[in-house]
Specification:
13 helices, 2 domains, single chain, Rossmann fold, six-stranded mixed sheet
Length: 343
């Protein structure tokens, strides 16, 4: 299912980890170079906390990147009475509306004050990865595929609503085909993805949720389940995405925050999705993103991937494409590279 003709660096950027595959033609996937490292948001958060402990101002310089742990650390820095400065590009990490960023207490400027610690913001840590691979004599691939989770540009309305509306539009435009959620190039509205593409213009950049489930289909048993109908769940550190799927046709999906779910609640939503009765309002009102149902799917086959799979779905089939669950997203990226770029 994955047989590329050129080397590929695949990076799946999550909330807790960034999972990395260095694909080399002629080498088995099982023997490929693989890394599971702290995600960029975790790395930036730790640098901010170091500055907070030292009582130093910080200057955020770089690109719009994913939030989460880093934005929490920045708020704590401000709450400690310490200054935060940021370039316009980096400030977008905190909110699409820069007026709201300023209202938080962040000063937006192009040049750092002399006493500030400069912290680079990016989802693509190229210098660090190049150095790490070079220490082991591993060539850095020219071809790069990166997955990040993007809510789209939404300065004045809920980014949860906006993200799910964009997903629904892609589904409708692509006749609810699984690959319609992984457009290449990404939508212009996807500012986080576009920030990555500015750093590596030739990269394939797409969304983390669908690529993990596309990667799960590299598990032969999961592929066979999909022929007759399967419920696919990616339980990430930040988000949980669930599809009902037959072949490559999506029958329905919902997206929620992993931290808001427990096993009973997730099971409830899964079976409501399968029988076609789950509403988007129900998921949104519970703090999630939304749901979309095209038609019900009669199946009892449930497959799960993602780092929180055992906590929320311990009895489901645990997908392990090429024997490595943590790299599901990377395998999905490699599959998409083959399909979109090598045909």
């Amino acid at each position: 299912m994955i047989d590329l003709t050129t080397p590929l660096l695949a990076i799946d950027v999550g909330r807790g980890t960034q999972d990395i595959l260095v694909y080399e033609p002629g080498r088995s996937i099982e023997n490929s170079i693989k890394l599971v490292l702290p995600s960029p948001t975790v790395v930036v958060a730790e640098k901010v906390r170091q500055a907070t402990r030292a009582g130093l101002p910080i200057f955020l310089d770089g690109y719009l990147m994913g939030g989460g742990t880093n934005t929490g650390a920045i708020r704590e820095h401000l709450a400690a009475g310490l200054p935060v400065y940021a370039t316009p590009g980096a400030a977008g990490t905190l909110h699409d509306d820069l007026a709201r960023v300023r209202a938080m207490g962040v000063e937006i400027r192009a040049v750092p004050p002399e006493d500030a610690v400069t912290i680079r913001t990016t989802d693509y840590m190229a210098p660090e990865l190049q150095k790490a691979l070079s220490l082991f004599g591993v060539d850095y691939p020219k071809n790069v595929a990166i997955a990040v989770q993007d809510h789209g540009y939404s300065p004045h309305r809920s980014n949860r609503i906006h993200r799910f509306e964009l997903m629904r539009e892609q589904l409708d435009a692509g006749d609810w085909d699984l690959l319609s959620l992984a457009s290449d190039p990404p939508l212009a509205d996807m500012t986080r993805m576009q920030a990555v593409r500015r750093q590596v213009p030739g990269a394939l950049v797409t969304d983390t949720g669908p690529v993990a489930l596309i990667g799960a289909l590299c598990d032969p048993l999961v592929r066979r389940m999909a022929d007759t109908g399967v419920i696919l769940v990616n339980v990430g550190n930040g988000h949980t995405l669930c599809f009902t799927l037959k072949g490559r046709e999506i029958y329905g999906l919902f997206e929620h925050h992993t931290g808001a779910l427990d096993p009973a609640k997730l099971q409830h939503y899964i079976w409501r999705l399968a029988d076609g009765t789950l509403t988007s309002e129900e998921i949104f009102d519970d703090g999630g993103h939304g749901a979309a149902v095209r038609k019900p799917l009669v199946t009892d086959a449930v497959v799960v991937t993602g780092p929180n799979r055992l906590r929320l779905l311990p009895k489901a089939y645990q997908a392990a494409p090429f024997g490595d669950m943590m790299l599901s997203g990377c395998f999905g990226l490699a599959y998409l590279w083959k399909r979109f770029r090598e045909g």
